[in-house]
Structures are given as structure tokens and as C-alpha cells.
């Protein structure tokens, strides 16, 4: 891995609910290299969005440590946070809900530039133009409001706003899930082009495994708040080890009609993340579960750069 | 298309438009296809292509107005459904043709126990006592993998995947001959999607049900469909068997869809997306509706509408450039 940009150690984020503590992110540890894309996959409710939002301080973490450029940013002052926000941004899932309906395209993109205080009045316009061109929005749409744009264009505005101040780290929270396939590919290519040009680091949160494989260098697989497996994208798809990862990968419908694949159909439902019992949370649905699995699981390196949180990894791994 | 004896269901030249704020929105513009007993047809296309409108026309549940069927016939074993009275149609709906809707959260009545929602349809269509209907509803629940003990639960007590299974149980409770599945797994997670597709496929095989599967996911089509119709701007632009479409896509739009899709079995640096946006159905371009986005379009494409022409077997395509070498090359790369 290249130079480390972000290091996350034993990060926890719990939410209080009437029924007890909801363990949305539970003891997650990983690092993200500079200029790379870390994909985070998992099914709804696994805590992947919460993880992304906790990293950039949209939520305060419950416990653990976040290091950014080697500096501890787990708890920071308001002033410091303001500076950090320039470097850490987020692109949201729903381009219909994440843009201010009363602001034009240009106003939306100019807002972060103005707030940063880095630009003189005369420069603002040029900079906004540059960003609109960068994300491929026609000049004629400068004064358009979000409701006049289709999903793909709205998402381009969201991307422009997030990248306006050249951040070093951007959380992409399901940025293409709300878009049609043909538009989805346009936006994915745009994100990749921008990364090539500026060297920005992405954390790409999605439930779509084909998308995450396409765009990521490294991937974290999450299940009910826990990190179950993390390695390079190539290794994960070639050599999945955790029983959940295996089932997840086998469940993806493939367009290759000639390749016969063994499909693992999981039984049972996802258990509640509220006050969960210790031990592996996947055990209830796991075909390999034994008594051992009720003990707390440790993330361990089973081959170079390949980490798995399963006590039976070696036995299951064929 | 697919001429093997009389088809079980046949749709001929269906045209539907909606009226909205004085504008005519051309949702379905001359769609024809047929389906044999026990077969599965995939209707593939993007948002607004008219897929759901086709399904709702077959079941005659389009809101009229704003929707209006302009022409066409829908033949179920030779009987035109569009000509039936409301009473006659009510006997077919749920009994011979059933539909699974996209969003299980809104397809169920939130203040009615799920068991009763299933039994209601059974009691309506079959001349059996309430007790027997309840028994059958319980059997249906078990068939989709939900314990009969949950008969008296309300929808909010189920997870998304289980709710969709309840909807499937409801749709299949009267052994329909035709199942319309409108994006049945889009709202579900991928492991749950695998469970649900598995259930649908098994039950369909068991009961020899025909199915129209509406989806934007080519992976699902590859898995469950025998034949595929690619829909763009309310028209079928390409139709063929699963092998014909996946191995030799011909229409530039179909080829574009494959190029837009990240595939888990191959590595590409960049996707090759379709440029531009789907057309506004209130203001369709003249000639081929795909021509403004098509890399191969020329004057001929914009001049007049393009007809479906045969390629081989059941494979047909609505494109003037299908013999173009560049199109064939692109098809080989993505197909």
C-alpha cells in the first residue's frame, strides 16, 4: 500500500435507541492509502454509511481512534473541524435530496468556495466555471435549479460541490445507486477521471458488488457493524475467505450466461444490531458455525494484506 | 416472434399514452410480443422506458385517465383482455394473471394481518370455505419459507425480504397461469435477492407458470429468463432468446447497456457508457428514438421510424446499422 492517508483503529459508533444500544459500527480497524479507493460493501443496515460519516465527523465516534495524515482527529475543536472539512468531503446517495432546492447550480458550487475565504470576488466566477467544466455541466445550466435537472446531472453538481476545494479525502456514499445503468457508467468514469487528475482518495460505500469491484483498490466487507474481511479488490474476488463474503459474492447475478456458478443461498434473516451478543454476528446464518463462533472474533492476517475475522477461516478456506 | 404453436399470451401493437398538464406522454409505442406456457420473458430497460406500463396494461390496472390505451390487443389464449367487461376481467385478475410489485413495503395493507391478505384472494376466486382458504394461505406462507405461525402478524413485523415473500405467496396463491414480476428484487439486498429469485424460479417450475420479468438488471435476466425484450422509449428495440441477446447483441442500445455494466468476471479500466440522456417521452425524437445518443446514427435514422427486422432464429432488431462492421465489433467486445 502507498503512503497512508487515513488510519482507523477500533472505531465504534453506537446509537441510543429505546430498545438499547445499537452497535452501528463495532470495533473496526483499517487503513486507507493516499490516492486510492477503499470500497466498503455490505447489505442495508450493516453500518457502512455510518462508518463513512463517522470518519468525516458527521457523527462523533463512541470509541476508537481516527488518524488523518498521521494526526489524531478523533476529537477536534470546532475551529479545527472547519479546517478539516476543506480536506474531507462527502457525495451523497440521493441527488434529489442532497441539493438545496432554492439554490441554482452555480450558487451550490460557489458556496464552498466563498466559505473557504480563499478566493477574491473576481476569482469566484472563474473558479466556479472551472469546476462546472470539470464535472461536465453545460454552462447553460448555470442558473438552473435542481428540479430542472435529471439525476445524472444533479449528481454531477453534488460531485462538483464536494470537489470544489480540492479535498484529499472524499466519502462517496452510494453515489450511483439512484441512477440508471447508462448514467451510472458516466458518473463512475467521471469519478475515476477526477481521481487520476487530482490524486483524491475515495472511500466508496455501496451495496453493489460489481461497482465496488470496478472502482476499488481495496475493499472492506461489513456485516452488522463489524468488519469481516478486508484485502485488495483483486484478492477479495479471486479468493474470498469469510463465509459471508463467499455467500455475498456468489449471490451476485452475472451477465455471463455460460459460466456455471455454485450459488450459496443463505438461510435466515439478519439479526438485530441492538445489544448484540458477543461472538460472530454472522454465525446465525453461517453454514460453518460451531461453538467456537460464540467467542469474540479477531481480525487477523491470513495471507499478505488479507485480513479476515473468522475463527474457522483456515478450515473453511478451500 | 417465438412461433411454436399458439402462444399462451400475445400482445399486438400496444400503444398507451398518459396525459399530464396538457402534454401527451407516449409511454408505450407499438409493442408486440408473445409468450409460451411455462416460459419467462425478460423486459429490460431504464426508468421511464414503459416496462411497468406494459405490465399494467396486461392486468388492466392502469389509472384511466391519465392513462389511455390507444390501440392494440392483448390475447390470453385467444381472448382479447382489452375487450372484456370489468366483471370478466376481475375473474382473471389474481386468478389467471397475478402481479408482484416492486416495493413490498407499499404493496401490502399495513393494517391487515398478512395471512388474511393472502386468504382474501383465495376465497374470492375459489369456491371454498373461509377455513379452507385460511389453510391454503398457511400452506402458501410455508411454501415461501415463512412459518405458518406468523399468519396473524402484521406487515411491519416482517423484514423487507419476508414482506416480498408474502407478496409472492399472495400472487401465487391461486396458481396463476401468468405472473407479472415488476422488479421483484430491486428493493432487496443481494443475499435476500438470491433467496427470493430462487423461490420464484422453483415455484414457477412446479406450477408451469409463464412469467414476464421486468427489470433493469441484466444479471437477473441472464439468470431467470428464456427470452429477452430490450425496451427503449416505449418500443422493443431488440428481441431474442437469452443466448441470442447475451452472445450477439445487435442494437447499439443493447450493446451500450452491456458496456455500461461493470462485470464481476472481467476487469476493465473504464466503462463505455451510453452518452446523453434517455429522451423525454412527451417529446420523442423523430425517427429512431435512440438516434440522438447513438454513435452510428446518420440521416436515415433521423428521417423515419425504424422497423424491427429479423436476424436469425427469433432474434429481431430495430436498427438500420446492424450490418455495420463497427457495430458488430462493439458487440463482440461487450457481448
What features would you describe in this structure?
The complex is a heterodimer of chains A (318) and B (335). Chain A has 318 residues and is of the alpha/beta class. Chain A has helices at 48-55, 78-87, 105-116, 121-134, 151-163, 181-198, 209-215, 233-238, 243-250, 313-316, and strands spanning 4-17, 20-33, 37-41, 63-68, 71-72, 88-91, 169-173, 201-206, 218-223, 226-232, 300-303, 306-308. Chain B has 335 residues and is of the alpha/beta class. Chain B folds into two domains: 1-96 and 178-335, P-loop containing nucleotide triphosphate hydrolases (Rossmann fold, 3-Layer(aba) Sandwich), CATH 3.40.50.300; 104-175, no CATH class. Chain B contains twelve helices and twelve strands. The two termini of chain B are 22 Å apart. The model of chain B has no long low-confidence stretch (mean pLDDT 87). The A-B interface holds A 43-44, 150, 152, 180-186, 188-189, 192, 207, 209-211, 213-215, 237, 247-257, 259, 263, 265-266, 269-270 and B 46-47, 159-162, 189-195, 197-198, 216-220, 222-223, 242-243, 246-247, 256-265, 268, 270-275, 277-278.
Q: Helical element count of chain B?
A: 12
Q: What low-confidence regions of chain B span 5 or more consecutive residues with pLDDT below 50?
A: none
Specify the CATH homologous superfamily of the largest domain in chain B.
Answer: P-loop containing nucleotide triphosphate hydrolases
Kindly provide the name of the CATH class of the largest domain in chain B.
Answer: Alpha Beta
* Low-pLDDT regions of chain A: none
Percent in strands of chain A:
15-25%
Helix content of chain B: 25-40%
Intertermini distance of chain A: 27 Å
Mean pLDDT of chain A: 89
Q: Nearest-angstrom radius of gyration of chain A? A: 21 Å
Q: For the terminal residues of chain B, how far apart are their CA atoms?
A: 22 Å
Quaternary structure classification? heterodimer
| Rg result of chain B | 21 Å
Counting DSSP E segments of at least 2 residues, the number of strands of chain A comes to: 12
- Spatial strand sequence of the major β-sheet of chain B: 6-7-8-3-9-10-12-11
Biggest sheet of chain A, in brief?
8 strands, mixed
The helix/strand class of chain B is alpha/beta
Number of domains of chain B: 2
CATH fold-level assignment of the largest domain in chain B: Rossmann fold
**Average pLDDT, all residues of chain B:** 87
